[in-house]
Amino acid sequence: MKLTCLIVAALVSIPLHADAKEALQIQLSSEATKFPADVPVDLKVTLTNVSDSPVRILGYHTPVIEGIEADILSVSLEREPVEYIGRLYKRAAPTDRDYLTLKPGESVSGVASLWDNYDLSVSGTYTIQYKTEVFISPRSDTELAFSNVISVYIEGRKPRPNPDDLDGETKIVDGNNEKFKGCSDSEKNAIISARQHALNYADDSYDYLVAGTVDTRYTTWFGDFDGSRYGTVRDHFRKIRDAVDGEDIKFYCNCNKDAFAYVIPWENFKIHLCKDFWPASTTGTDSKAGTLIHEISHFWSVASTRDIAYGHSAAMDLADSKPHKAIKNADSHEYFAEATPYSPYNPCAPTVTSHTGAPITATWDGANCHVMNIPAGASPFIYNNSYYVNAGSSTSCPAPSTWDGANCYILPYPSWSTGYFVWSGSLYLTPGPGNACPSPTWFDGANCYVMPLPWGSTPFKWSNNLYITPLPSCPIGGFDGAHCYVGAAPASRTASIWGSSFYYSH
């Protein structure tokens, strides 16, 4: 027997202008109480304007036009929220054409399909409520309108495949580390260029965050500084950078929606490019490169962002009023990335910190960042993302010692001295009777001061003479007690050696 759920309507006041208020009644219903595993779970949503003024509501926050195109249902199983697994679109800030306008007394209805959009893998009784963002205004506490709540029993089932992913006559074609479906040659070239610029954006963003920078670029899109939130954004851009750089991304050019692109967040690295993507500029605000940053941030394996606010103004308001949501918003990540300070982008902008603390600027060689050449005969190595060479021998002896052909000779060891020792970086002898000290040492009130002991040199007694080992030789860098330390690669990059040069990765 079919059962139509009774309606418990939610009345929501929506301010449209200073002198008017509208009320929206939302009804959620189902013709069945149980859904076998092979039956779609389709619910009916009816929106009615019960006021005496027109009501506006975002079309893509309803199932009226194209079905579910956003996370517009609150679905739970045994009080645990159920994951939204539907499409996440990159859209422009909403304009008048994106709204539905309901005249007084007018109703519209649509079908909300759960199977295509929510995780129904577990059998049980699900509770469902419709919600819609009446205003995209993160400052508003009344931005969501709600329906009544219904409960239905659903047998567990796997998600249905996305029909746009199914191979037909047009097959996926391998690219560099891209794959394409339904894309012309010019579209493929545009995608490859956008991906390279997206990598530039991601590299720059990660470099900025690893450096711990906090200025208006950060606060505009992610709000006031908080260490935990900052760390989350930094980790997001590390994963975004790695995905843009290394993942095998599949691009589909068969989306005819008025949007830039969409992804299904659990389907890793499949990006569907829509109508607004192609006329967008390669870089800049709402660009092709920025769109790739936006979409890649959505994947569960990357940053699991959502579309909380679309467009510059809404994203800035979100950062100002709700920074904990801004760090989860895809557009916030895109706009932060598109605000790069480099024009054109310099892949070797982060500098190496030398052994003296001074910066060393690398140069781009077309593949990696060249730091410096390694002197002939030096033995280089990388440790802890830093550059080193092995120290060599030398004949350098600090005064008052002198080179004797093997070591640095200081003085004949006096028979009355009971020992030598190093204290606070200097070499000493114990004094003789009456505080006697052999030349060139002198009594300092407690012992015979010999000389400052250079770092890396060791004193020793041999054949009744006092010596120190000669200073180690560093063709580059400075001796650190064991090796010649040259400098540290930028924290966001990986130090490497190729041929006879030090590099770090792009």
Automatic annotation (TrEMBL):
Cleavable signal peptide: 1-18
Taxonomy, superkingdom: Bacteria
Alphabetical UniProt keywords: Hydrolase, Metal-binding, Metalloprotease, Protease, Signal, Zinc
The keyword Cell division belongs to this UniProt entry's keyword annotation: no
Gene3D superfamilies: 2.60.40.2970, Collagenase (Catalytic Domain) (3.40.390.10)
Span of domain Lysine-specific metallo-endopeptidase: 207-338
Pfam families hit by this protein: Aspzincin_M35
Cofactor requirement: Zn(2+)
InterPro entries assigned: Fungal_M35_metalloproteases (IPR050414), Lys_MEP (IPR029463), MetalloPept_cat_dom_sf (IPR024079)
Name of the protein: Lysine-specific metallo-endopeptidase domain-containing protein
Organism: Corallococcus caeni
